[in-house]
Amino acid sequence: MIDSATETAVQAEQANLRRSLDYIRSNERLTPQAKRDDIARAYHRATTKIEDLRANCEATSTGRRATLERQLFGIGNALDPVSASVSLRDAGDRVDAIRAGDSVALARLMGRALQIGDTYLAKAVLQRAWDEGHNDVVNTYLDANSGLESAAQELLNLQRASNPDVFATGFADAAYITPAPRELTGYSPRQIEKMAEGGGDDVGFRYEATVASGTFTPAAV
Questions:
Q1: Per-domain residue ranges for the chain?
Q2: Phi (first) and psi of residue 101, to 5 degrees
Q3: Cα separation of 178 and 19, whole Å?
Q4: Angstrom distance (rounded) from CA 8 to CA 188
Q5: Confidence label for 124 from pLDDT (cuts 50, 70 and 90)
Q6: Where are any strands of DSSP class E within the chain?
Q7: What secondary structure does DSSP assign to 67-128, as a single string?
């Protein structure tokens, strides 16, 4: 997944890379090998920063989701955390006795919990309804606890953004993709890293597509 701030930072790194490549390519004082190595350094530096941005975004998202889940489904700022944890556990056991998918029973129990002010039973029902997608039960809870609506919406957005659906995930991941410059086509990531570290002639073979056969044949650098 990617948030707007991270996406902006990634785009800035990619723009910096394009400027660096334009400068290196236009520098007539550099030999072809020196240009290749400088391009490798610029590309490696940019992709390393972008991977760091991805890792930080994912870590922040995971931490934020955990915070929101505790806020919605946990004991909150209970004065007696031990007793609150026991009450929430007992409430969870009661909810677990309800057959999976039985939204009618959940709605009935949610109504009862809200009526008698049983906070932890309501939270236990909320979590079950949330996990099973019973929106009517979730909305009943949020109508009675309007202060949690924004937290619920944020959690829903984060869950959708990290949905394992192939298309959704691929679309989000595309923002992090930075194609290798044409000068590095055919080189492996390890070879590019070696060029970035110092270059030289000993970087191994470069693989180029053979158009006629569609196979790959090694070509010396």
A1: 4-184, 185-221
A2: 85, 0
A3: 14
A4: 28
A5: very high
A6: 206-209, 216-219
A7: HHHHHHHS--S-SSHHHHHHHHHHHHHHHHTSPTT-HHHHHHHHHHHHHHT-HHHHHHHHHH
